[in-house]
Write a structure and sequence with these properties.
Four copies of one chain form a homotetramer. In chain A, about 20% of the residues lie in helices and about 40% in strands. Chain A is an alpha+beta fold. In chain A, strands 1, 2, 3, 4, 5 and 6 form a six-stranded antiparallel sheet that branches. Strand 2 of chain C pairs antiparallel with strand 2 of chain D, so a sheet runs across the interface.
């Protein structure tokens, strides 16, 4: 599991007094840097490989300004050219949001899917959800 | 069906040259104003009723700066206290993103679900996806 | 003068119940599309020319969700390689924000300033603030 | 001086390959939390006191994704009801942006300015720019 701490910003709240729901995808993307580094060690956009193709997200608890948030990221599934991440947003001991994102290893220049290289696959497997884990 | 035109902003692009995926939820929320007005005719946050509880989204085509985007919003399902919207993002004649969002009619002050009032239900039904529509 | 209408978004409010101050630069940039088109008629990022070098902004009145906003943009000054825009944000008949931004005509690839071409200068002059105008 | 480290996000880049200029005010606000805590120790929006009335900002160097950013915040001036912060954005040893923001100690409920309390003034003075400092 990867863990990323995020400090909510005033600009991320909305007039209902909590963090606006549209901020969650921003935080989730910000917590995928270790994943991005596996595919693009230099984090260079010239050779960027990863494209989001699907997300499914449950919002179960409000998130507030003034308390740090932890994003817990695990690998859920690894396919031939794609993989899924399980992402959770925690605040004050409660899971507030859980989400699954599907990425494709995509060559943006040549517009085609590419197999996930074996060495990256091994790294991803290290962060895979264990069977029987909650 | 509701239709909302949106002009992509430079600040909504990312270094990959297209609209960043985290912008989509912002646009979708921006295109729900007619729905918000059904529940809160004054658009007042004091008596705000609607909370997002679930989203599921497919990203099928890149979206670019410089060309207007149309958001097409239909009602997919109406439950006792919740409803689902079907939302699509179109650009240059292509459907680029499709998404389903589930809202609960939620009294934020008293923290409890409330039945969707009959007059709002009638309005929502007018925008419901027709059976057999693509 | 250029005029751009903007519909404030829920995600642009903050927990103080108004539009967050960090949203203003986003709106101002969004209202510069006619200026961008003068320099880059195709709005292509490949040959983008304009870089912000300075802004100065007064926030005099709160802006709220639920009421459209008008951005009024005039040319304040045209130099050899740079120009200034005067930008105002109006809501409900009141000027809420006024701002001056300085852009340089900058070749991002070769990292050098370029003179403003005469035909663009003529276009900019058409939108220049008149002497004696408020 | 206050120092805040910020990790740039993919969603904060734009199609020109760098951090979009509209992100700077977001980062600057995010780095004012220690100032906000002086005025609102609970960081509660119910009794929020501070309102931005003026900003002036120089953009001197591009900022990129993939390298941490440091925001250096000092107190520039303390008036009766207002104060100014000097804010700088540094990346890879270069100052990329410098900005001055003016805040008013403003009672949002009663819509009136309030004197800065003596104990807060003492705290602000501790972070004041030294005479002769660059």
């Amino acid at each position: 599991m990867y863990s990323t701490m995020i400090e909510p910003r005033v600009s991320e709240t909305d007039a209902l007094g909590h963090i606006n729901n549209t901020v969650i995808p921003v935080w989730l993307e910000a917590s995928r840097h270790p994943i991005f580094k596996l595919f693009m060690p230099e984090l260079s956009f010239q050779n960027w490989k990863l494209v989001v193709v699907h997300t499914t997200t449950n919002y179960t608890k409000e998130i507030f300004f003034g308390h740090e948030v932890e994003i817990k990221t695990s690998v859920k599934k690894i396919g031939k050219t794609s993989f899924q991440l399980n992402e959770e947003v925690w605040q004050n001991g409660s899971r507030c949001v859980d989400s699954i994102v599907t990425y494709v290893n995509f060559d943006l220049k040549n517009k085609r899917k590419e197999p996930i290289p074996p060495n990256i696959r091994i790294e991803l497997e290290k962060h895979q959800l264990e069977i029987g884990s909650p």
